[in-house]
Amino acid sequence: MPPTHDLLLEHRRVAEFLDRASEVGPQAGPGPSLDDTLAALSALGLPPGSAVMLALSNSVHMLRLYLSALLLGLVPLAVAPATPSARARMLAERLDVRAVIAARPDPQRYGVSRVHPVPGAGAVLLGGAGEPAPYGARQVLMSTSGTSGAFSACLHHVSSLLRNAGRHAHAVGMSENDTVLVSLPLYYSYAMVAQVLAAFTSGARVVVSGPPFAPAGYLKQIAEHGVTHSSVTPAIVRRLLDGPSGAPSAPRVLTVGGDRTPPKHVARLLADRPGGELYLTYGLTEAGPRVSTLAAHAEPADRHASVGLPLPGVRAWLREPPDDDAGELMVATDTALVRKITDSPSARRTLAAPGVVATGDAFHIDDDGYLYYRGRLSDFVMIRGEKVSLSAVRQAAQAVPGVERCTTTVRVDDDGSPFVDMEVAVTDPGPEAAQRIRRALNSFLLPGERPRTITLTAVDPQAFHK
User: For the AMP-dependent synthetase/ligase domain, which residue ranges apply (predicted)?
Assistant: First the structure.
């Protein structure tokens, strides 16, 4: 099935796609059918345009629920399965989510008394049944990977995500003959669009794995399932290259995205994979998500620091570049978000005009149009391959009673891995305060967001009154 701008999500195609999908690990027999899942979701009584939060691990069940929600006109929002219930409740309130689907949800934590069974999970209804649905059918909410705070999401049309997925599939040579290993978290647009929906548009088969990543397990999955197409992050690349075997010769295609890949790692990947294809990609959820691609195996070494050329239908330029010829990358695309829902004032400027995304990333563009990433303009850091908003971390600390001010410092381990230290000014720096703040943060923040150390200082009364 060639990529097309007119491909639709419809029952027959979704059923065929799911029938070809498989999962790493022992299988417990045939799973529920697409019709069973549609019936269970329909029984929830949610009208089209209702947002549904999916806090589920990578699995075929997850894909079936996600695609079923879209077929029913519901608006899925995939989040990390480890999301604390307090955070899920606040996110649901901010985004007007009408139901939460999780493996074993505790209804009391959501202020209700009943869990509704759905295949492979349970659903908790959050109310608002008598109110108009806040979104439209065939729309999707996508998490922003931590770059815009804890309670942000991008609203997209399903059609634009499929269009972006088709363009990406074409750019990286994905076809109906490929088997795609989906091992990145499905709650990120990179996995859901650039892998799952790209496989759907191209007719490829998916094998669902998932975090945590382990090099030995990854290599075994590639061999056992005949994987020909895999997407990884630069953090995963580093782990593979540091391993005893280096980068695997299979699969045929590796795509790398989610952060900048050092040129020395690109060179090693190419050397370890003679004849293999290597694509470096750049994107952001707001753009739908993929923006550009570099076929590194077909380019000279001096372009290995680049993320390539914009995809067809995408135009990129720099806004007010300074003297060093690096400025904020602007992207015009028909796959841009409809709108951004966020409490962060700086993130509201993302949609500079209809179809035009202000990326917040600093880039250089050479005379041939190749894009070179220079860094993020906003306040975030990559920790264990995850984008962490330092602003969101500070906001969480400052919400703890007794905390007046908070600062975060990014430090680096001996192995080059970044982590966050936190200094907190409190009204009462007693012996139990640090533990109390730590417990509060652990109940709210994801593991990669939690500070390694918390240092307490007493609030300076003089500074307080200035």
Answer: 39-333
For the chain, the 3-state helix, strand and coil shares in percent, each to the nearest 5, are 30, 30, 40
Q: Please name the residues in contact with 146: beta carbons below 8 A apart, sequence gap of 6 or more.
A: 380, 386, 387, 388, 389, 392, 449
* Backbone phi, psi, residue 219, to 5°: -65, -40
Q: What is the mean pLDDT of the chain?
A: 90
Token pair 């290995």 is found at: 304
Please name which of 121, 249, 227 lies closest in space to residue 178, comparing C-alpha atoms. Answer: 227
Phi, psi of 413 (to 5 degrees): -70, 170
pLDDT value for 7: 64
Nearest to 31 by CA among 101, 105, 121, 104: 121
pTM value is: 0.85
Residues 6 or more apart whose CB falls under 8 angstroms from that of 191 comprise: 182, 184, 185, 231
Give the single-character DSSP code of 227.
-
Cα 260-58-62 angle, rounded to 5 deg: 125
To 10 degrees, the CA torsion angle through 161, 164, 165, 169? 180
Closest CA to 248 of 264, 235, 232, 260: 232
Half-sphere exposure of 336 (CA within 13 A, CB side): 21
Give residue 36's pLDDT.
97
How many CA atoms within 13 Å lie on the side-chain side of 123?
A: 26
Mean pLDDT by runs of 10 across the 466 residues of the chain is: 56 97 82 95 96 97 97 97 91 95 95 94 88 93 69 93 98 98 96 98 96 91 97 91 88 93 94 96 96 98 97 94 77 97 72 94 94 80 80 85 87 87 88 90 90 87 39
Fold of 380-465: GMP Synthetase; Chain A, domain 3 (3.30.300)
Report the C-alpha gap between 158 and 136 in whole angstroms. Answer: 11
pLDDT at 345: 64
Q: What is the residue extent of each domain of the chain?
A: 31-137, 157-376, 380-465
Assign domain 157-376 one CATH number from 3.40.47.10, 3.40.50.12780, 3.40.50.300, 3.90.180.10: 3.40.50.12780
